[in-house]
Structure formats: C-alpha cells, structure tokens
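User: Hey, quick favor. My workstation is busy. Could you predict this chain's structure for me?
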Amino acid sequence: MIRFFAPDIAQTGLLPEGESGHCVRVLRKQPGDLIEVVDGKGTLYQCRLIDAHHKGASVEIVGSEPLPKVWAPYITVAVAPTKHADRMEWLIEKLVEIGIDRFVPLRCERSERKELKRERIEKIAVSAMKQSLKAVLPRIDDTTPLFQFLKEATQCDCDRFVGYCDADTPRQLLAKAYQPGRDVTILIGPEGDFSPAEIQACFDAGFTAVTMGDNRLRTETAALVGTDTIHILNQAFSQTNQ
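Assistant: No problem, here it is.
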C-alpha cells in the first residue's frame, strides 16, 4: 500500500495539499478507501478517506501503530554540498533510505556550492522515507557555516569523525575507529577539501580524521559509505550480543 505523509494527521485529520493531490488526482482514491499515513515522528496510521478533495483530503483514523527507527544511535551527517545539486539530492535520498537522524549542509571556505534549497531536499527526504517504509523523518538543517557547526558539535556526547584526504595526516579506518552503539557525527568536506585552518578547527572540536577505505571517493560517496559503515557495525554488534 502506498503511504502518505501528514505530520499533523492526528490533530487535523487532513492530508497536506501535495499529498492530497497525489492521493485523489493521481491514484484516484475514493471516499471509503483505506490508506496508510506516516507522521514523520514514528507513527503509522491506518486511515479511511472521507472527503476526496485534491487540496485537502480528510480522513478518519481507524488505527495506528508505533513504527520507530530500527537503529539505536543518533546519526548526524554533515556535508559540504557539491557543485552539482543533483548529487546532493541523490545523497539525501540514499541517506534516508539507509537511515540517519540529522542532515546538515555545510558552508566551507572551499565550498563549490554555498547553499542548498532546503524545501527541495526535504521533499526528497519525505519521498525516500515513504519509499523505504519508514515513519521517522530526519531533521534537515539550513546550510550552516562550518565553524558554527563545530561549536555546536563539541556539546555532543558522541563519536566525531571527519573524512580527510591528506595522506600525510594520521588517519584511522572508520570501521575500526567507531564504537558500535555510540551516537556519531560524520563530517565530510567540500570537493576541494578543508582548508588548513578548517581541519585544525575540526581536530580542536574533537573530530578524529578517518578514511573510508583504500579508494578515493567523491564527497557524496564518502558520506554514503561512512553512514553505511556505521549501520553495518551496529547491526553486527547487535547480532553478536543477542
């Protein structure tokens, strides 16, 4: 069954305009039809369509069940957007499918792209959440200056890793550096990498320089591989300790 997203469904009983149009005009749902709705906060609702209006379809909630995320740690991925926005759109889609809690676009000294359209990114995240049968929507931040993000990151009781390309700087393999079960922040810099001042600020903020493996990866690939590594390690740890 196709799922719809309505963050305030429990309070309003209404689908947002975009979801209503898809439900009524595209899928041609009729009053009395059953649909599934997620609120992005961890609940799945079984609903019956009452008024099939393409701008504000109303529903009756006939049941609900908690559908929490399936991973334990809080995963933050902070990435300097690439020059081509479509790569970031691809990345957020895949990150949501795999599972993250927060996505932060970063503005760095050597950033090829200074801003991301948050509304567009959020729409992609919602679509990926529904497609991957999740009910929790990750937090999407506005584009944030790196030094502002680092100041905030020091307040987090979590493992902090920064992907860095300088082979002369001591780096650890992420798969060995991360402690399963711990909240984690993964930081990936721009295509031109961090400036010396920026990488030093990362180290001062408690970030450990890591590599994702022996291959040289694009910005979006490094973010994806890093996130998937965290999930694999946590899943292996969980199965070992069952």
